[in-house]
Specification:
BirA Bifunctional Protein, domain 2, 3-stranded antiparallel β-sheet, 10 strands, binds 3,4-dihydroxyphenylalanine
Length: about 350
């Protein structure tokens, strides 16, 4: 130590100051009770304007030896405090997560005495209600496979090969058999073919089920959804029977103050074809589905003589109907299986 050194003890003062600020900093970081508080404490303790960082400015007044020693101590203190902050952040994040999980805790095993532990999904309820209404009108219920042949889904239903109508169905094909021969059914109409080829007429039948299209999920579309199909084949069935059946269904399912209308349309498997809409008591219309007189080619494809048998068919989506009735406006809510959403219905 020489006389030239301006403040021989200045380095020691700074070391003591660093120790004091580090101690205070540790206390302050440990006291932060939330992530926001921790962020504020961190800025105050190791930020650019913190007293500790401010000590850097006083290094210039020290001799080289003192500058090195004090500089090292300062950096070590800052690093140590940053590590403390990091540790505290992990603790607080874990705590916040634990608290969130606790708040969102659902006891899925809870059974309230005297009450069933769960209930049917909204779509299942809608299917059962629709079946009830149609059974009340004299229909039976039939089902068909979800993996179908191209023939049942399209060919037998009078979609000519390579016809653009097929493109509207965004078909998902299954890698089975000859290429394009096997698919996930795009509608419930192939169940009509199953019914007509499975037993002799007459048929008064509804066919609910799951259908598939390669669609991106949004508020009004799902790649997997549900339809219900209707088929009536007997002698002397006319378009008036179709219109009457649609209207009787509308009143039975929605209520006596609802009405229905048919608008001309096109489907390969019906001729003539129509869309049917229902009118709510407030006068607004809801587009429900398609219908028409079963095309003679379809009857013939299923081995029935079109001169002897006539009929009508209809089909509509169930999911949109189910949510419309409950004031839900996003189809995806039905299938994300958030128990808090589902238990409302
Ligand atoms: N299968 C049609 C679809 O998915 C709906 C449909 C239209 C069904 C007319 C029918 C019908 O039975 O007659 O878009």
């Amino acid at each position: 130590m020489t006389d030239e050194s301006p403040h021989p003890a200045a380095g020691d003062d700074l070391i003591a100051e660093i120790g004091r600020l580090e101690g205070e900093g540790r206390d302050r970081l440990a006291a932060a009770a939330t992530l926001d508080e921790l962020r504020a404490a961190e800025t105050a303790v190791v930020g650019k304007r913190s007293p500790l960082t401010g000590l850097r400015r006083r290094l210039g007044a020290l001799d080289p030896e003192g500058r090195r020693t004090v500089g090292k101590a300062l950096n070590a203190a800052l690093e140590a405090l940053e590590a403390v902050a990091e540790e505290r952040r992990a603790e607080l994040a874990a705590e916040a997560r634990r608290r969130q999980l606790e708040a969102e805790r659902l006891d899925l095993t809870e059974v309230t005495p005297g009450r069933p532990a769960g209930h049917l999904h909204l779509v299942t309820q809608a299917i059962e209600e629709l079946e009830d209404v149609f059974v009340g009108m004299g229909f039976t219920v039939a089902e068909g496979p979800e993996i179908e042949t191209e023939w049942h889904n399209f060919g037998a239903l009078n979609f000519p090969p390579d016809h653009p109508a097929r493109d509207e169905y965004d078909t998902l094909y299954v890698g089975w058999g000859e290429r394009g021969s096997t698919l996930l059914r795009t509608h419930t109409s192939p169940v009509q073919v199953r019914v007509m080829t499975g037993s002799p007429p007459p048929y008064y039948c509804v066919m609910p089920g799951r259908v598939f299209r390669s669609d991106t999920a949004d508020a009004t579309h799902m790649p997997v959804f549900h339809q219900i199909e209707g088929l009536v084949v007997d002698r002397d069935i006319t378009f008036a029977d179709l219109a009457g059946t649609i209207d009787a269904f509308t009143k039975a399912y929605f209520g006596g103050d609802f009405t229905s209308r048919l608008r001309a349309s096109y489907f390969p498997f019906t001729e003539p074809s129509a869309e049917f809409d229902i009118q709510r008591p407030d006068g607004t219309w809801l587009e429900l589905g398609g219908c028409g007189m079963v095309h003679p080619n379809v009857l013939a494809n299923c081995g029935l003589d079109p001169d002897e048998w006539q009929g009508f068919a209809f089909g509509f989506g169930i999911d949109r109907l189910a949510i419309a009735r409950h004031g839900v406006d996003d189809l995806r809510d039905l299938f994300t299986n958030d128990i808090r959403f589902l238990t409302q219905f």
